[in-house]
Amino acid sequence: MAQQVRVVGKVYSTTNYEMFSYREDNRKIDTDNVRHKVESIKVMGQQVPIKVDGKNIVQDGQHRLEACKQLGIPVEFIVDQEGSLTTNELALLQSSSKGWANEDYAYSFSQSEEHGENYRLYREFCKLYPEFGHSTILLLLMNLKSPGSNVDKNFKAGTFKVKSFNKGRQMAEILRRFAPFYKNYTKRNFAVALVHIMSYPDFDLERLMRKMPKRCKELMDFSRATDYIQTFETIYNWKESKKLYFR
Questions:
Q1: Cβ-proximal residues to 83 (8 Å cutoff; 6+ apart), any chain
Q2: Is 158 left (phi over 0), alpha (psi -120 to 50) or beta?
Q3: Other CB atoms within 10 A of residue 100 CB
Q4: CATH 3.90.1530.10 for the 9-100 domain, yes or no
Q5: pLDDT tens for the 247 residues of the chain, in order
Q6: Which sequence spans correspond to the domains of the chain?
Q7: How far is the CA of 111 from the CAs of 26, 69, 107, 114, 118, in angstroms?
Q8: What three-state secondary structure class fits 228?
Q9: Which of 74, 96, 69 is nearest to 85 (CA)?
Q10: Which of 23, 99, 134, 219 is paired with 233 by a 20 to 30 Å CA distance?
Q11: Torsion over CA of 9, 13, 16 and 22, rounded to 10 degrees?
Q12: 238 beta partners
């Protein structure tokens, strides 16, 4: 039985670039990405139309639009009358075309009403402590003793929540105190180990810091947090009659 062919959308073309606008919750325009699009379109033409909603707000293809602008050629587009994508749908769509950086997710979700404040705090923390990587920052802001498998997944799904910004800052400042003694103090497993040992009620940070000038060479680039914990324990108990064990 022959099946009918139905029209699901029409492709339009225009050089009236001003008719389009961008979403505030989309990632920022990446000039390198635009440059690559320009080179690609020069050779192959615009292979995929951009997608806009009924108000001509770009849902997908802002870099293609910018490339067509630079080339001065008509941009092809499809109008989706069903409405705009949610922030989460937008992030999922865009990440499948060109991987979003963590800052892209943070910027996009910072515009949302439900969890926007959490992502704005994340971005502020990144500015205050630019030396720390994404996974370490999540660990600190969520006040976690160990990184769970769903932490980054939740961040990219728009459901990331800051437990305590101030406690995160306090821990970051403590980590910075180790900078003169260990150059890779920003490593996530180093942070995991320090958070772990500081959870002990009798732990004395100043006691550990007093030992660091003479024993810091024992801190190496371990691949496991447990190795850092063991090393901290050895340094902490050096020349002490009252021992404290962290394992």
A1: 53, 54
A2: left
A3: 18
A4: yes
A5: 455 544 445 888 999 999 999 988 877 888 988 988 898 888 778 877 888 888 899 988 899 999 999 999 999 998 876 666 666 666 665 555 555 678 888 888 888 878 889 999 999 999 999 999 999 999 999 988 776 768 888 898 888 999 999 999 999 999 999 999 999 999 999 999 999 999 999 999 999 999 999 999 999 999 999 999 999 999 999 999 999 998 7
A6: 9-100, 101-175, 177-236
A7: 9, 26, 7, 9, 10
A8: helix
A9: 96
A10: 134
A11: 40
A12: none
List phi, psi (to 5°) of 7.
-85, 125
Using a 10 angstrom Cβ sphere, with 0-12 exposed, 13-18 middle and 19 or more buried, the burial of residue 178 is buried
